[in-house]
Request: fold
Amino acid sequence: MSIGGVRDIKDVKITEFDAYLFGQGTNYKIYEKMGAHLCSRDGEAGCYFAVWAPTARDVFVVGDFNGWSGYGYDMKPVSDGGIYDLFVPGVKRGQFYKFLIISADGRALYKADPYANQAQLRPDTASVVTELSGYDWHDAKWIAAKKKEDHLRVPMNIYECHLGSWRTEDNGTENGYMNYRDIAPLLADYVKKLGYTHLELMGIAEYPYDGSWGYQVTGYYAPTARYGSAADFMYFVDYMHSKGIGVILDWVPAHFPRDAFGLSEFDGSCVYEYADPRKGEHPDWGTKVFDYGKNEVVNFLVANAGFWIDRYHVDGLRFDAVASMLYLDYGRSDGQWVPNRYGGNGNLEAISFLKHVNHMIRENYPQAVTIAEESTAWPNVTGNPDDGECLGFTYKWNMGWMHDFLEYMKLDPYFRKFNHNKLTFSTMYAYSENFVLVLSHDEVVHLKCSMLGKMPGDREEKFANLKAGYAYMAGHPGKKLLFMGQEFGQWNEWSEAHQLDWYLLDDESHKDLQNFVGRCMSLNRDYAALYATDYDPEGFQWINADDRDNSVYRWVRWDPAKKKNLLFCISFTPVERDNFRIGAPVPGTYKLILGSDEKHQKKQLVTDKGDCDGQEQSLLVDLPPFGVAVYEFDAAKKAATAAEETEKAVRTASGKAEKPQRKTSAARTHAAGKKRPATKKS
Reply:
């Protein structure tokens, strides 16, 4: 494998037309021209540099190839739009550089390249000359299949992962991180075995501060050097695809940090951020807000979204902090925000940007999905961006479900009957958006406790509670996301500073929980009832949503063909219930496919006649404390039998209506002693 291949400067040099499209916000592959690109001019090898600095007095490129001196390396304006460029002979891959920008008021600013494809490992901040072409991809069939699939009707079980703390290695270095190439086979094998279909990676675009987890980005076009090179990350994605695992990246178009070498006041003025601090600063986070009113800033972000799909073959982007983009008063008090032109609090420019980027991805990269972390009730987040007010995301995180679910699960079981609707209310709005159910990293940090730590009761009850909760999540409409470590029951909150507590898997309880989660995820992957009708109300039916006194919930997820349907029955109290009668939607045999105590639960049940839960037949289910029982049943056979009986009844009724008439006619003829008339001859 090689990364490289020298191009002629005409292939990378920004033209007047490129600059025009950039000014319109529609140069979707501007990353092929902006930044640093190895090439040759008149047979001489070197590097072409280009940067946007619209209010700068002068711009220079400096690096270890010129002793970090700008003298003689002044960049020239390409047009009047603020783009500068320069070809520097002799520059090679791996050399460091920055842009030296002289602001309008004479300050000298040393800035990393906003379009750099590689950056130094923190705490160093220079950009690195590299080349992205030349990697030999092996996932053409994967991408072709993804372009054709209906994203809403395929399995999606997402394993949210922070690579730096999933596993580390004792390699004698301060870094301690595993390389993208080394971690790929370990991670792929692990998530595939547990039934996951996708990875969602935190913190891949370069960032300076470990504690930000990658949500304060300084290098939007560079995978973080913590885990290796650009080619290493390409290998990571390629390997995941070879194992049938999709890769989703967390993407941060909402804000960026104030670091002096980054985007903040890039040329001495507010280039990438709103100039008015009432719009351009997040008071809660101490970060800058992108100016979505500038076409060039929009182009930077829209092209960046396409860049990760185009160059790294990722399967989707999860947009971080979308609510902070939509609301002008997000995190701001009265008087600290600026209303829009209609006097409202919606950021019209951000709304337009979100529609723009979702439309671009839908049109150019149909294989990819977009996911909104949107924590409010903003309408029409998901759907077609060309349809009226729709923002155009494929999916939206269901933060309302997450909040109600966790509040319920933290309750002492005695009080759950008074909060019964916390687990049923979400089905009232489950089809208003294309939701992903999430138990993300945000729920297991900052003194919120781990998932296991949130559960009430003694040690045994905590594990039983969590298994019941995960089973409920598995059966609820919507795609699924679970943050790493919660599948085997971390006791500690997550920290980016060290790897997961893998030693816990030496304990039988943690291993059992891991296996249970794997079975839940495998159900979601293997049963069409749990993925093909996630966004179809006909795919879900409550059998009894009102049994608050027992805190036992039962519902059906219907298979599109009605063959492999699933009946869920879950108890959220520490009461053992043998022969607990529940309604069954059709008569017949029900096979246990997931139970919390399968050694003591009947593997097969046959319905009894008689009304229960509004159904004409019932089952006697064994539920241990915090019990889970999921049954597979076939309704297609029942429907076919019913159709046959109906058709037979119609034929019988039709036959009975005709035969008496013939017999009556024959009887009358016989009684009259008449013979049938002979046929007349002509």
